[in-house]
Amino acid sequence: MSLQNNVEKVITQIRSFLKAEIGLVYTTVGQTGSSLLGGVFWLLLASLLSVENYGLTNYYIALASIFSATALFGLDATVISWMAKGDKRILFEANSIVFVSGLTVAALLSIFQWPSGFLSFSMVFFMMTLAETFGKKKYKEYAVLSIGNRLVQIGLSVALYFPLGLIGIVLGYFFGNLIFSFLYLKTITKFTTKMESVKSKRSFALHSYGFNLIKSFTNYLDKIIIAPIFGYYVLGLYQLGFQFFMFLSIIPLSLYYYLLPEESSGSNKDKIKILGFVLSVIAALAVFALTPFLVGRFFASFVNAIPVVRVMCFAVIPSTIVSILNASLLGRGKSKTVLIAGLIYLASLITFLIFLGQNMGAFGLALTLVIAQSFQAIYLLLRTLFPLSFFQNTQVSRKLSK
After folding, report:
1. Is 367's pLDDT higher than 90?
2. Rounded mean pLDDT of the chain?
3. Claim: this prediction has a pTM higher than 0.85
4. Rounded to whole angstroms, how far apart are CA atoms 225 and 230?
5. Residue 96 neighbours by CB under 8 Å, 6+ apart
6. Which of 101, 142, 289, 333 lies at a CB distance of 3.0 to 4.6 Å from 133, suitable for a disulfide?
7. Among residues of the chain, what percentage have pLDDT more than 90?
8. How far apart are CA 315 and CA 308, in angstroms?
């Protein structure tokens, strides 16, 4: 009877926690559902396309992703942070700027690769739609938008591929983004040239812009370096490990998107931060233990990737710390620190990819991801625990003592 009471008590506490943090639940569902459906989609494409066409499709979408990030100007994070603080004007001003920049970037990109240009501005509209839902703390709506977008993309891409080929896949992506950008498209009727709210936050937006560009470049830069220097076989081993890391990244990404508006509005979510960190450690250890079985069972030709995957799964731990601290810092308007941390990550990634890759092969490349994430986390921890004012005061004290 005592055991039953304890079980019921635990269940009640879990229900109470989930009810109190329902926003995190919806954010995680949206992130998980979108990531899993995205993985299924690319596995499905691999069964339909030749290797060359599979690579070309990835190239179109990667190019569109990079250019869409340049068109956002960091205004997606700006909208999330300041809408959560009650600034409603920022939405219309930011959306007006992005409408012009998105179409401009798409037009320029279309000169060189029109499928990517065509796709890029629909990505911009969809990202700003998600920013609005987070800024309004409509987490359930975010989950619906994320999963719905993926489902429509998969259905239309496959359906249009058979009559139209690769362009059909691009069109499927385009219409998926556009259909679920209805919130953004509604705001275009209130297009404005008044930018008072955006101007007052331009420093934050610029720092966020730099941070977003770094995130976009780091998603693709490592592959660009590895392929010509170490070859496609090593890149294949690295990429499998990176896919495992991306799956685990559901934890830090969910935490970031949930915590950013909460931190911006002054809510204390320390319990969520601790829970997220503990989950990342457990997940990393679980994948480490299961990797030989998973790779041997489902990726038999990638047996040599087992040590690579086992190392890279631990990158989720510093990545979770980075996401928590980035959300906290951006929520308090400290975007410069986030930008510098991103630059540290990028610099260490490039340096160690070359050095460790040449000396340790694929294992060294995997270790690089963990090191780069750790450097970024350490810098953010130091700046959080010891703000700049601490170091400035220390220097002043030393001068006075002299």
Report:
1. yes
2. 78
3. no
4. 8
5. 188, 191, 192, 193
6. 142
7. 10
8. 12
